[in-house]
Amino acid sequence: MHVDDLHYELPEALIAQTPCPNRDQSRLLVINRADGSITELGAGALPLGIRLELELPLHEAVIDSGDTLLLYTDGVVETLNAAGESFGFERLREGLVAGGSSRVVHGRVLTELDRFRGEEPVYDDRSLVVVSRESR
Q1: Engineered SS bond to 32: which of 14, 68, 105, 132, CB 3.0-4.6 Å?
Q2: β-strands 68-72, 127-133: how paired?
Q3: Residue-number span of the structural domain to which 85 is assigned
Q4: CATH assignment of the domain containing 78
Q5: What is the pLDDT of residue 108?
Q6: In whole angstroms, what is the distance from residue 136 CA to residue 133 CA?
Q7: Helix axes 102-117, 88-97, angle to 10 degrees
Q8: How many domains does the chain have?
Q9: Residue 52 CB-density burial (10 A; 0-12 exposed, 13-18 middle, 19+ buried)
């Protein structure tokens, strides 16, 4: 199964804003700060489509020089291996904190995801977007 992918280098500041559409995705996006700290945004809500009108909390963060923004669907962290274990948030975070350009981080996470899954089938869609802002 194909993983939708996008990686992009940002030349200017960006303010990331996101509603939190899924209760089972407790962290919708993760930012690796240039200083090595991690900021997680998203507290979760009902899955989209359950209610016609749904107010979602809005989270905002500034992507500064040297920061990396990682967005993903639940299919990434819920990917299973042969033992029935899920890939999980910690493995995803490890791929981010190791650093590098958006292309490097993206490739690292996908490589680890495929290694972890092995020959197990994919049960859910998986999307991964990595955006980084160049250091000045």
Answers
A1: 68
A2: antiparallel
A3: 4-133
A4: 3.60.40.10
A5: 95
A6: 9
A7: 150
A8: 1
A9: exposed
Q: Which amino acid is at 117?
A: R
Tokens representing 59?
């989270």
Place of tokens 């690292």: 108
Output DSSP code: residue 105. Answer: H
pLDDT tens string, the chain, 136 residues long: the values are 444 454 445 455 455 544 444 444 434 566 777 787 888 776 554 555 566 666 666 667 777 888 888 888 888 989 999 999 999 989 998 998 888 888 999 999 999 999 999 999 998 888 888 888 777 6
In this prediction the pTM is 0.73
Cα 27 to the center of its chain, rounded Å: 8
Q: State the CB neighbour count (10 A cutoff) for residue 90.
A: 9
Please tell me whether residue 29 adopts helix, strand or coil conformation: strand
User: Are 47 and 19 contacting, i.e. CB atoms less than 8 angstroms apart?
Assistant: no
What residue type is 20 in one-letter code? C
